[in-house]
Amino acid sequence: MEIRRLLRHLFATRIGTRLRFSDAVDSDIETAIRAAESRTSGEIRFVIETALDAPELWAELTPRERAAQVFAEFRVWDTELRNGVLIYVLAADRDVEIVADRAASAVVALAGWEQAARTMEEHFREGRFREGAVAGVAAVAGLLEAHFPARAVERNELTNQPSLL
Questions:
Q1: CA 157 to CA 41: how far, in whole Å?
Q2: Sign of CA dihedral 47, 49, 55, 56
Q3: Whether the Cβ atoms of residue 163 and residue 73 lie closer than 8 Å to each other
Q4: Which of 46, 51, 100, 127 is the most exposed place for a label (fewest CB within 10 A)?
Q5: CATH dotted code for 3-153
């Protein structure tokens, strides 16, 4: 286990995460998701996790593996068209992972999801959390919109409100 990673997770605080992702930022993320989902039948879920617990760290769980767990826990896979997408931010690792359900991952190249995540990480490194989150949602929406246009009658299957773990 990398000692620097362990220390980042041990000293990461929920308060620090809330300073970066304030209620105002959460509101902007929610608005961005609502706008994005008006243009696509895809569903976007945004989850921010401050740090991993000790057992996960000792098991050397990667951000990608944790994102897959969160994808399942939040039932992002449980959408009618199987085109749900999770945007997962692991604050202590300064990492963004995007996990897409079967239909979405079948038509969008992995490079597209990775580029959206890297764009967010670049903004976050510069301290621009609002801009990074909104840009990430817009990038994911663009990828979904190309393959999953909005339907005449849309129902919101996943909450648009970001979750903080």
A1: 10
A2: positive
A3: no
A4: 127
A5: 3.10.310.50
With H, G, I as helix, E, B as strand and everything else as coil, classify residue 22: coil
Own/partner pairs, 113-116, CB within 8 angstroms, 24+ separation: 113/85, 113/140, 113/143, 115/139, 116/140, 116/143
Reported pTM: 0.96
Q: Which amino acid is at 32?
A: A
For residue range 99-146, list pLDDT tens digits in order: 999 999 999 999 999 999 999 999 999 999 999 999 999 999 999 999
| Residue bearing tokens 């690792």 | 93
The 3-class secondary structure across 36-77, one letter per residue, is HHCCECCEEEEEEECCCCHHHHHCCCCHHHHHHHHHHHCCCC
